[in-house]
Design brief:
TIM Barrel; binds cobalt (II) ion; 525 residues; eight-stranded parallel β-sheet; 22 helices; 3 domains; globular; 10 strands; alpha/beta
């Protein structure tokens, strides 16, 4: 039996899960030589929230980080998390922008693109998968794990078969919330191994205390690789620690062999990262470090739990915590049992909060409306038809059934337009800048504004100030939050017509998704 492959995710998911994605390239470099020498299957070094957070909070140009890490870890394949048509943002981009992002990242050395869609809609993954293959990189088709009446083992396996047909080099089960129990993982891995001929990798978190046991069970079922961290950027809401997993597998026929030298290197990494963890302590939280079975009770990601505790306190709804979390399955069911992962976890959470605050289905977030109308893709089960009708009436938009990126009614920037915009702004207009500008135009402009006059600039121009405990912490209601046309909140043109009783008072919420502020405005009735 082949030993299981250990990947290491400490430079991406490790600090995203435990330190609000705030590790700088400079803090990473001292551990790179050891990380690269151990012989991990892959190092997750980029993608997910690191591109946004790095640019926004750490003032790093994303491709500079990739270059630096690639140079510092030349031997081990590099891996990144990519949100399909959303790239690493929250809305859909034109195919040519997705293609340019993937090709450019591959040119900078990215080896493995781990591609997922928040709704598990494979149509939103196809373009990125094909682009990765075309660039000579690996495309890993990723299945978001969630629990619902429609998410059966058979459905997950069907999705795996489809991803293999689409040309993926491996299937990844992505359990972002750490909710997959060991025997469920066993069942799904076994089902996939029977039906697909490409490797099956498993990604989970230790949030609810199931992670390491789930890996063991998945390994028994034939999983080819698992993702791990290194303490202190491991366990809790992060991946299980590498040393711990090694100990857990001792005597197992598939235990990988780690020489004394490798163990020493792991020890050295840990020691250095202890220092980094201390430096980042304003972004760490005991809530993320401990195993919390609340995540199981509510079936939501750990980050969402801590986020919502804060958000509800700010809305003076502390006493409604239970009610809001009981409302989450109601919202999920109405929205076709969507998985809870960026950005759907926030969207469902906000809608649950609105339902509790104003009464069920009295107010809607624009994002929930878009999900109901198909603008995020095909939901796992049909959206409640009544809810869809209401969403159409309120927003004045028609439901769509095509792949969202093909919707002619939504304008999406082309590469030529992006290049033109950059030229107008006097910024470099290469593909690197085009794709970053497409996703984070304000942040890119601020990055250059700071870079060009570093001496005068003493304030950190974050749109959302770094939150104390976690990247997902909500800030207080922002009174002037949504100006029409400026944000997603493009707000509610139809609401007043739909509701005769609408009054003038508006409540603006500023939520943040992985550190990125998103404004939502609702009318208080
Ligand atoms: Co993860």
């Amino acid at each position: 039996m082949e030993p299981v492959i250990f990947n290491n995710n400490v430079l991406r998911d490790g600090h995203q899960s435990l330190a609000a994605t705030r590790m700088t390239t400079e803090q990473m470099l001292p551990v790179c030589e050891d990380l690269d020498a151990i012989g991990f299957g892959a190092l997750e070094t980029w993608g997910g929230a690191t591109i946004d957070a790095g640019l926004r909070f750490l003032h790093e140009f994303p491709f500079d980080r990739l270059d630096a890490l690639k140079k510092a870890c030349p031997k081990t394949p590099h891996m990144m998390l990519l949100r399909g048509q959303n790239i690493v943002q929250y809305s859909h981009f034109a195919d040519e922008v997705v293609e340019a992002f993937v090709a450019t990242s591959a040119r900078h050395g990215m080896d493995i693109f781990r591609i997922f869609d928040a709704l598990n809609d494979t149509r939103n993954m196809r373009c990125a998968i094909e682009a990765a293959k075309k660039a000579g990189a690996q495309a890993h088709g990723t299945i978001c794990y969630t629990k619902s009446p429609v998410h059966t083992m058979v459905k997950f396996v069907e999705m795996g078969i489809e991803l293999e047909k689409m040309g993926c080099d491996a299937i990844v089960i992505k359990d972002m919330a750490g909710l997959i129990p060991p025997y469920r993982a066993h069942e799904i891995v076994e089902g996939l191994k029977r039906r697909v001929n490409i490797p099956v990798w498993v990604h989970t978190h230790e949030t609810a205390g199931l992670g390491a046991a789930t890996y063991l069970s998945a390994i028994e079922a034939g999983a080819d690789a698992i993702d791990l961290g290194v303490v202190p950027f491991a366990n809790g809401t992060g991946q299980p620690d590498t040393m711990r997993m090694l100990a857990l597998l001792e005597g197992h026929p598939r235990c990988p062999s780690f020489s004394d030298e490798c163990r020493e290197r792991l020890g050295r990494i840990r020691e250095r990262l202890e220092g980094v963890y201390e430096e980042l302590k304003s972004f760490t939280s005991i809530r993320n470090e401990v195993v919390d079975s609340d995540a199981l009770a509510y079936q939501v990601p750990g980050g969402m739990l801590s986020n919502f505790r804060t958000q509800l306190a700010e809305q003076k709804m502390d006493d409604k915590f239970e009610d809001v979390f009981r409302e989450i399955p109601v919202v999920r069911e109405a929205l076709g049992w969507i998985p809870l992962v960026t950005p759907t976890s926030q969207i469902v959470g906000v809608q649950a909060m609105l339902n509790v605050k104003f009464g069920r289905w009295k107010n809607f977030s624009p994002q929930a409306i878009d999900i109901a109308l198909g603008y995020y893709g095909r939901t796992p089960a049909p959206v409640d038809p009544e809810f869809q009708k209401l969403a159409a009436k309120i927003s004045g938009k028609d439901p769509i059934t095509c792949r969202p990126a093909d919707d002619p009614g939504t304008k999406r920037a082309t590469m030529a337009q992006l290049r033109e915009k950059l030229r107008e702004a006097g910024l470099p207009d290469d593909d690197e800048h085009c794709v970053i500008h497409a996703m984070f135009p304000e942040q890119l402009a601020k990055y250059y504004a700071m870079k060009n006059k570093p001496a005068e600039n003493t304030t950190v121009p974050n749109v959302a100030a770094p939150a104390a405990a976690t990247a997902q912490t909500a800030s207080a209601p922002a009174p002037a939050a949504a100006k029409a046309g400026q944000s997603h909140a493009a707000p509610w043109p139809g609401v007043a017509d739909a509701r005769a009783a609408a009054v003038d008072r508006k409540v603006a919420y500023r939520i943040s998704i992985e550190g990125r502020a998103v404004d939502a405005v609702v009318e208080e009735l």
